[in-house]
Amino acid sequence: MPSEQLEDYLKNIYKIQSSEGRVTTTLLSQKLKISPASVTEMVKKLAEEGIVTHTPYKGVHLTKEGKKRALQIIRRHRLWEAFLVEVLKYDWHEIDEEAEKLEHVASERLERRIDEILGYPSTDPHGDAIPTREGKVDASHYSSLASITPGRTVTVRRVSDSSPEILRYMSKLGITLNKKIKVKEKIEFDGSLRVDVGGKEQFISSKLAQNIYVDSD
């Protein structure tokens, strides 16, 4: 199969496995925007190559080799995102699509050079950990802003990059990595929050708060 297609499968299996725990062909189909039948057929091929295992009703799992290759492509993707923001001055809502294209064409030499120019970053512009060349990845866990009780001040450490629209709206509200947010009130009927961001009061929906990950001061 084309290497680009293989890399997309491995990367998305890893991401679903990390966030959902169980990778079903249905979830993979939705993520890749490919029919369930095509995904099932491809998973069988990947299993034959020893890159994944697939057990009916238990889902798809990366083998040791599959995980290694998935982390390689995720590393390139996140390094490209950091390069686009730090060097080319892209906004964080613009970079995922560009990095999707660039991750498939970067040589190992270019990857090392980008890493060096950026000062060997440990996270990408959204706060996601950049895997090391050895395949190690930081397992930091943060709470969603939606779970924070009123009266607490927290620091933004990571944001979901699943939606450019959400990222664009966060920027409009002044929400960036390492920004302090004080939760003033939680509206019980819909879970929205009244917060202070940089001295300015804002209202944040429950959905938006669930896409912002923080730790306490």
Shape: globular
CATH topology of the domain at 143-216: SH3 type barrels
Proper CATH architecture of the domain at 143-216:
Roll
The total beta strand count reads 8
The whole-angstrom Rg is 19 Å
Determine the CATH superfamily of the domain at 143-216.
Ferrous iron transport protein A (FeoA)
Number of helices: 8
Q: Can you tell me the residue ranges where pLDDT is under 50 for at least 5 consecutive residues?
A: none
* Helix content percent band: 40-55%
The CATH class label of the domain at 143-216 is Mainly Beta
Query: Which band does the percent of strand residues land in?
Result: 15-25%
H/E element order: HHHEEHHHEEHEEEHE
Structural class: alpha+beta
Largest sheet: 6 strands, antiparallel
What is the arithmetic mean of pLDDT?
90
Query: Termini distance?
Result: 48 Å
How would you write the strand order of the largest sheet? 3-8-4-5-6-7
Task: Describe the fold and architecture.
Helix 1 (3-20) crosses helix 2 (25-32) and helix 2 (25-32) crosses helix 3. This protein has eight helices and eight strands; from the N terminus they run H-H-H-E-E-H-H-H-E-E-H-E-E-E-H-E. Among the domains are: 3-62, Arc Repressor Mutant, subunit A; 143-216, SH3 type barrels. The N and C termini lie far apart (48 Å). A six-stranded antiparallel beta sheet has the order 3-8-4-5-6-7. The chain has helices at residues 3-20, 25-32, 36-48, 64-86, 95-102, 108-117, 164-173, 206-209, and strands spanning 52-55, 59-62, 143-144, 153-159, 180-186, 193-197, 200-204, 212-216. The mean pLDDT is 90. The protein has 217 residues and is of the alpha+beta class.
